[in-house]
Specification:
Distance between the termini: 84 Å
Number of helices: 4
Strand order of the largest sheet: 7-8-6-5-4-9
Radius of gyration: 36 Å
Helix content: 10-25%
């Protein structure tokens, strides 16, 4: 017989005989699995990754143009809990909002918002007063007092531009509106 042999398989025992240079070795068909006696464990492969992922800052929702439902007694100190819609026209990094009231009746300082109808499908008028605080003096945020309406009632960018132009350029109380806007936009997150 020659020294070089091809692999022979023994059908009865399921073993394969391999000939290497001068010695014969026997191994099972499942030679890919590591043997129980020779376990070499690497700490890097078995240790779980214990480093904590840095939390990504939450992406701020752009609420400008959305409408919110609230009650009159949350806007000003009044005893009437009449429901009201407000439109968001300003927002800062803390998600504090600047809003204007939307109404279906023409009043002294209200201006018609063309091509927009509120939930009751009537002509809509907006107030020329910017509100940045609720009745308790806290900043306006989406929550229990101010709930967001569905996206169908959202204002377009053009409509928001019309409201802003009227608030800051043509309203009789434009200086007061500008002061409220500047105060709202200067409020930064704590620690930044």
């Amino acid at each position: 017989m020659s020294k070089k042999r091809k692999n022979k398989s023994n059908k009865k025992s399921g073993q394969t005989i391999h000939k290497t240079n001068t010695t014969l070795t026997q191994g099972r068909k499942t030679a890919n699995k590591p043997s129980k006696t020779n376990k070499s464990v690497h700490k890097s492969s078995t240790a779980k990754n214990t480093t904590k992922r840095q939390s990504m800052p939450k992406k701020r929702k752009n609420r400008i143009g959305t409408t919110l439902s609230t009650q009159d007694n949350y806007m000003t100190k009044s005893s009437k809990p009449k429901k009201r819609w407000v439109a968001v026209v300003e927002q800062n990094d803390n998600d504090e909002l600047g809003v204007v009231s939307l109404e279906s009746k023409k009043r002294k300082n209200n201006i018609e918002l063309k091509d927009y109808k509120t939930g009751n499908q009537k002509t809509t008028f907006f107030s020329t007063f910017l509100d940045t605080e609720d009745c308790d003096g806290k900043p306006i945020k989406v929550g229990t007092k101010f709930t967001q309406n569905n996206d169908n009632s959202r204002l377009t960018d053009k409509q928001v531009g019309v409201i802003k132009k009227r608030l800051y350029d043509k309203a009789p109380n434009k200086e007061d509106n500008k002061m409220k806007r500047d105060k709202l936009l200067k409020n930064k997150k704590l620690g930044s």
